[in-house]
Design a protein that fits this description.
The chain is of the alpha/beta class. It has 19 helices and 25 strands. It is 35% helix and 20% strand. The strands form six sheets. Strands 1, 2, 3, 4, 5, 6, 14, 15, 16, 17, 18 and 19 form a twelve-stranded mixed beta sheet that branches.
Length: 556
């Protein structure tokens, strides 16, 4: 059996100019990065602004487990299936971060015969967007520290600096550091830290910006620190806005690549959904809507994280209205949520599956609360038994949700036809009545409680004293009407990663509240979640190499 990377490397890609022609783009619309990658020019995006939109399909999943779910693979396979039956479907997905690529997860461009290529490029440096974001973030940090070093004319309180440095790697040693040591010539000593680049607010504003003007306005109002008298200090205050725009002038343009069967895919932006808003760029999603009859996009992790943020933050800011949602699950992962050991997942266990399906049921209910119809996609594994698949179908259908078996990993487009037809049926027979889960005018604490109780299933929320004070401060500063982006573990509906399935009777703890005024939301940190991941005991990087003939081994 071929590995994912071997399948990708054996594919004969079409020149990206030919892929672009399938959705009505010409070479003049493209800025080429070699034969198989291109950015879409801003002039083209402006030209398409008044074109008719297609249907918007969101792909989400259950809470992830070590058994794997295959959300990205299913999303790509759905697009392949739709195109196979004569529909024009375009994917808009996130760019992988180098952190998980070299850490625990490996690559993130799909799998098997449902992949996006050139896979190696997408998983490594691609067109340099994340590097540009990293550099822009760290330029802001350098100019902030320089302002303090050069006499501190803005009267910045070094104990109230909220802007961190970033790097696109998992490096736990950088979470909490001290900078400026070694005497006056090296700056002002203070505590600092690094986030992973995809958690940077620069990534947030790039992904939520509608155009260059909107990006500039968002960058300008990003808060980096507070003065001694509590006044917010912005990127514009330290006069960094123009320089940051220069660094992002190409990164803001969406990237075009292709599936294994040469269908168009936009890959742009890459925030994590457990520590950021978890959605690809607004510009890429809107391009997919303008150029396809069906635009398919994903939101990271489960419906408690990525989908909630997609629906409450991205859709609200961008004026998007989803038409249907696909919820991805596997029998293996559901049995793990039901308490089954990973080593035993190949064995039939209907009791564990029935208990684990409670996790899926909660995600189905969450999507229904937004007024959206959904389809459950069962990502097939060879170990799935007929009895297990029948039980899963029976319970989902009792919830009024259609179920499709997705075999896209093994069969590509052919394995996605059943799912494609089920999604089309839902689009034709069920009307979406989309509405966010909370009103922006509600107090900050109420918005957080609504998410925790309605989406996670928590009994209550506990706020630290520091967070209570910050909620009062931000509401006084006019930030109270912003949506909330909760950073929490992806492994559980709760903020405790060990509580699998559908936990009940738990309380969510909010330990920190960070203003992301440029992104247009407040980040609430729950539990022990870290915005800088660490490497596992055996990183994926241990098994990677470059052969003498240039072949990449072990990336995915």
């Amino acid at each position: 059996m071929l590995t994912d990377v071997q399948i990708a490397q054996s594919t004969n890609m079409q020149p990206i100019k030919e892929v672009a022609e399938k959705i009505g783009l010409t070479e003049d619309d493209l800025e080429l990065y070699g034969k198989y990658k291109a950015k879409i020019s801003l002039e083209t995006i402006q030209r398409l602004e008044n074109s008719k939109d297609g249907k918007l399909i969101l792909v989400t999943a259950i809470n992830p487990t070590a058994a794997g779910e295959g959300k990205t693979t299913t999303m790509i396979g759905l697009s392949q299936g739709l195109n196979k039956i004569g529909k024009k479907a375009v994917v808009a997905m996130r760019e992988p971060s180098l952190g998980p690529c070299f850490g625990v997860k490996g690559g993130a461009a799909g799998g098997g015969y449902a992949q996006v290529v050139p896979m190696e490029d997408i998983n490594l440096h691609f067109t340099g967007d994340i590097h540009a974001i990293t550099t822009a973030n760290n330029l802001i940090a350098a100019m902030l520290d320089n302002s303090i070093h050069q006499g501190n004319p803005l009267h910045i309180d070094v104990r109230q600096i909220v802007w961190k440095r970033c790097v696109d790697l998992n490096d736990r040693a950088l979470r909490h550091i001290t900078i400026g040591l070694g005497g006056k010539v090296n700056g002002v000593p203070r505590e600092d830290g690094f986030d992973i680049s995809v958690a940077s607010e620069v990534m947030g504003v790039l992904c939520l910006a509608r155009d260059l003007d909107d990006l500039k306005e968002r960058i300008a109002r990003m808060i980096v620190a507070y003065t001694y008298d509590g006044k917010a200090v912005t990127v514009d205050d330290i006069k960094a806005t123009g320089a940051v725009m220069l660094l992002l002038k190409d990164a803001i343009k969406p990237n075009l690549v292709q599936t294994l069967d040469h269908n168009p895919v936009f890959v742009h932006g890459g925030p994590f959904a457990n520590i950021a808003h978890g959605c690809n760029s607004v510009m890429a999603t809107k391009l997919a809507l303008k150029l396809g009859d069906y635009a398919i996009t994903e939101a990271g992790f489960g419906a408690d994280l990525g989908a909630e943020k997609f629906l409450d933050i991205k859709c609200r800011q961008a004026g998007l209205r989803p038409d249907a949602v696909v919820i991805v699950a596997t029998v293996r992962a559901l049995k793990m949520h039901g308490g089954m050991d990973k080593k035993e997942l190949g064995n039939e266990n209907l009791d564990a599956l029935r208990k684990g399906i409670e996790n899926l049921e909660k995600h189905i209910e969450n999507i229904q609360k937004y007024g959206l119809p959904s389809v459950v996609a069962i990502n097939a594994f060879p170990t799935d038994t007929t009895a297990e698949l029948d039980l899963l179908r029976e319970i989902c259908e009792s919830k009024g949700v259609e179920v499709a078996l997705s075999e896209v990993w093994a069969k590509g487009a052919d394995g996605g036809v059943e799912l494609a037809n089920k999604v089309l049926n839902v689009l034709e027979t069920k009307q979406a009545h989309f509405k966010p889960i909370y009103e922006l005018e509600a107090p900050i604490a109420d918005k957080i409680k609504t998410i925790a109780k309605e989406i996670y299933g928590a009994d209550d929320v506990v706020f630290s004293k520091k967070v209570i004070n910050k909620m009062k401060q931000y509401e006084a500063q006019g930030l109270g009407n912003l949506p909330v982006c909760i950073a929490k573990t992806q492994y559980s509906l709760s903020d405790d990663p060990t509580l699998l399935g559908r936990p009940r009777g738990f309380v969510v703890t909010i330990n920190e509240l960070i203003p992301n005024a440029g992104s247009g939301f407040l980040v609430a940190i729950s539990g022990d979640i870290m915005r800088m991941p660490g490497l596992p005991k055996v990183p994926a990087a241990n098994h990677m190499e470059l052969k003498n003939n240039g072949e990449i081994v072990g990336l995915f």
